[in-house]
Amino acid sequence: MSSKSVDKASVAIAIISSPVWSPIYGMWLLYDKALMPMYQDAKSSIQEWERYRLWKRRREFPILNVKEKRRSLSVDAPIRRTIDSNTSENERKEPDLEPRLLRLPPEIRMMIWEEVLGKMNIHIEVKDRRIGATICQNPVPEDQVWRKMCPCRIGKRIVACTFEWEEYPPEGLRALPLLLTCRPIYRDVLDHIYRTSTFLFHRPEAVLLFVQSIPPTHAQRIAKIHLDARVIQKDTSFEHPLAYMPVSIRDTYKSAYPTHCTAQTTDMSRGEPQPSMWGAMSKLLSSLGGLRELRISLHGRCFPRQIYSSREGSEYVPWTLACGRGEKLVLEPLKEVARANLNMVVNVDWYASGTGEEDQSLGYVLKRPER
Asked: How does pLDDT run across 179-190, given as a tens digit for each residue?
């Protein structure tokens, strides 16, 4: 040990042991000792409250335990027949019970299903621990989509100007009778629904839960997705960590893009990076090989910690970027979704933080409001 360090240590000991500092040092030790139990109690109370909030948040979502089962009406299930080895060849011949509809070329059958079912826009919502699907019957005009919510999402609409609520009929997709007809028709109709319908989601967790709840072979048939977050409900945030989701989703997307918000978990309180719902949704979308059209419409309030709004006098200024890093956390995870055979468009309602030249290197089309 050098002489300088010894001198510094001796000087520090001399100062602490001096008559002037000894009472202050002793009082500080007593004060710290008295506060320690209070600090421990407060810390345990906070951790208990965080665990309760985490448990309550997880209770909002359904429990997923989906496995690829071979059922009589599954798309890839083989046809099983039990034939006795002693049965003669003439007895084994079965009459041709195939409907004449199925003898038509596939292109003709697809045209028939389109006339019967149409090209549907299907809202996928998660409510009361259930995943529901509703056909969009009253879409909002394009000039009002940033201000007005589609009434199909809440299942109600206002009748005239009487401010009375009228429930939408629970019609569903109206495809169950066709699906239960026979296996070939089930395969045709299901393929038509997944390949021609546009699935409308309004939160990242709805995308994760819906895709996780259906067999992987069905998920790979989805061709069109629209994440519409132009009009969001109160307290909606896309910055939540993946810790809120069911175990199957948390285990699948451990390497998702991390979140930088403070979540109500003890691990997050320590500042440890956790995978985000936004990053997990981006990773999931990149795995859908049948996806051909992806449209994402984002309101700045979906990311309250990264993007903010402002007013200049009486004039409303569309969403202004807090900093370039904030926008990166929003747009960067979507890069892994973009590919050559995917028509991907992202609409946002905030301006660029710089000149906007970096938008050309994202790999997808990014549309901003005009200044």
From this structure: 777 888 888 888
